[in-house]
Amino acid sequence: MKAIVVEKWLKGPEELRVSNIELPAEPKKGELQIQVKAAGLNFFDTLMIQGKYQIKPPFPFVPGGEFSGIVLKSTVPKFKVGDRVFGSGSSFAEVVNVNASMVLPMPRNFSFEQAAGLFITYPTSYSALVLRAQLKAGEYCLVHAAAGGVGIAAVQIAKALGAIVIATAGSEEKLAIAKKFGADYVINYRDKDWTEQVKKVTNGHGADVVYDPVGLVEQSTKCTAWNGRILIIGFAQGTIEKIPANRLLLKNISAVGLHWGAYTKNEPERIPEVWNALFQLFESGKLQPALYEKIYTLDTIPEGMKAINDRASYAKVVAKVGNQDSRL
């Protein structure tokens, strides 16, 4: 089968190569063998292959974090051969073995491409806004990098919860995408006065909740409301911020971290709660996965990763993997 295999830490996605390797062994008890139909691409995929991510798998490894596909072999009663599923695992390969706990049935009427980017992206945004920030209807929610994968999910979820959404992005094209997917107001964070613009659209109140996957916490404190909550999702701009504590003190601001992947270890009982809520939103049509206009292939995954890194893409970047028949 074809797969991308990493045998040493790389400088970047341009060094990735597709190889022909053996099919995975028989799945162990509790595992599924899945034919990958589509893979979701993330910024952390680049950190992973560079050895800069918090999880450092032993060499050689297949990178990739999200997939959708068809069950080829099952060792658990919950899933049967032929089931359409999505989940998390080493997705840059035509066939993967994954623990069944990391897989869910695909929502009805979703394509493989739509489902490929669900497993990490949407629960990250939902758990941040609901579990951590306790976003309420009528509150102002400021979403940075709102046209990106987790950003566009946050825009959609905040709207579905009844919030007033202010989206930031770095270009007119991306602002238009955020508006298309539900943002009430859009602001270019390259404008020097973007924090003043936030204050203006909120009539001086400021943002009750700030969703920040970029690293704009310090600047965001200037336009955060009294008792505001700033969600620290990631550091896509490349540097980890040092936050002046006096900014938080003066306005009763809470800076709140979110590490969705760690819920498996630390709060596993919250995971079904998040997924049940998300599936209700998927089934109701209130959440429709937003995809980047270009769908990549296994061979062109490095181009897709570069598009994310260069901030040239928007929404969720996905790649078709393997052939599109139901079996290899």
Automatic annotation (TrEMBL):
Protein name as it appears in the record: Enoyl reductase (ER) domain-containing protein
Gene Ontology molecular-function annotations: oxidoreductase activity; zinc ion binding
Domain Enoyl reductase (ER): 12-319
One annotated Gene Ontology cellular component of this protein: mitochondrion
Transmembrane feature ranges: none
SUPFAM superfamilies: GroES-like, NAD(P)-binding Rossmann-fold domains
Species annotation: Thamnidium elegans
One Pfam short name: ADH_zinc_N
Matching InterPro entries: ADH-like_C (IPR013149), ADH-like_N (IPR013154), ER (IPR020843), GroES-like_sf (IPR011032), NAD(P)-bd_dom_sf (IPR036291), Quin_OxRdtase/zeta-crystal_CS (IPR002364), Zn-ADH-like_protein (IPR051397)
